[in-house]
Amino acid sequence: MPIGEVLRNARIRKGYSFEYLEEATKIRAKYLQALENENFAVLPGQVYAKAFLRTYARFLELDVEQVMAEYNQLSPETALHKNETEQPPPEPAAAPSSKRWHYAVAGFAVIALLAFNALYHMGDSPEHNKPELPNTVQQPPVNQTLPSAPINNNRPETGQSKPTEGVRVVLKVTDSQSWMQIVADGKTVFSGLVNPGETKDFTADEKIYLHVGNAGAVEVSVNGKDLGRLGEPGKVRRQTFNAGEEPQLTQG
Fold it and tell me: What spatial distance separates the first Cα and last Cα of the chain, rounded to whole Å?
């Protein structure tokens, strides 16, 4: 069955008018009639003919691929647009409006004015274009004497020793064991037996308290000063050394 007859029968079967189809498919009614009449020369080109035919067949719920295949098999005499280009014809270029012509004239006038202004200023003398120098004279730098560093007259005299900070106690066990407990600034830092030949070194910020058994076996020095043995062999000795005081052994 010819393509046009297939389209017409489908439209009549659904009861569609060309006015309704034009609104629904956005294809002008005369082009829809041309498709049904197979008057493809009325259509604006092969590209539009195929597009209109595909849209119309789909809207009528026909087999679109079969309809397009039958259209492609038409002879060149029937489908007049078979060998036409796939691109729609270009629209003719619009003539320039009078407003564009006015803009062009104004542009030429501006260019001419700028050129005249440039030529006018090229004739100015160099003296006229010379920039004015500021009427100021730079003063020579004034020599400034930097203040000398202050002289420290509070230096200690030669031979004057700096007072020792804190307290340091060194205990050396000589010929027999000795038990000892050491408290530095109120905290016990050692408690136990010390063998002969061993040395214990303790420091504190304020004071060191010694509790030593067998004092005769322990030699002591405080802040580098040798005080000898703490006491007699087998005797218990308690001794306190304070920071800032002259170290010495007390009796008892």
Answer: 141
User: Both tokens of residue 243?
Assistant: 């920071």
User: What is the Cα–Cα distance from 187 to 142, expressed in whole angstroms?
Assistant: 66
Which amino acid, one-letter code, is at 166? G
pLDDT reported for residue 165 = 81
φ/ψ of 179, rounded to 5, equals: -90, 140
Whether 205 contacts 243, CB under 8 Å: yes
Report the side by side order of strands in the sheet with 187-194.
187-194, 178-184, 207-212, 237-242
> In angstroms, rounded to a whole number, what is the distance separating the alpha carbons of residues 222 and 207?
11
Angle between the N-to-C axes of helices 29-37 and 3-14, in degrees from 0 to 180, rounded to the nearest 10? 130
Mean pLDDT by 10 residues, the chain (252 residues): 90 92 93 92 90 93 91 66 44 50 67 65 49 49 52 50 75 92 96 94 96 92 94 90 91 64
Q: Do residues 19 and 29 touch, judged by C-beta distance below 8 A? A: yes
Per the listing, tokens 């590209």 go with 47
| Fold of the domain spanning 167-242 | Immunoglobulin-like (2.60.40)
The answer as to CATH 1.10.260.40 being correct for domain 3-72 is yes
Task: Please indicate, yes or no, whether the overall pTM of this predicted structure exceeds 0.90.
Answer: no
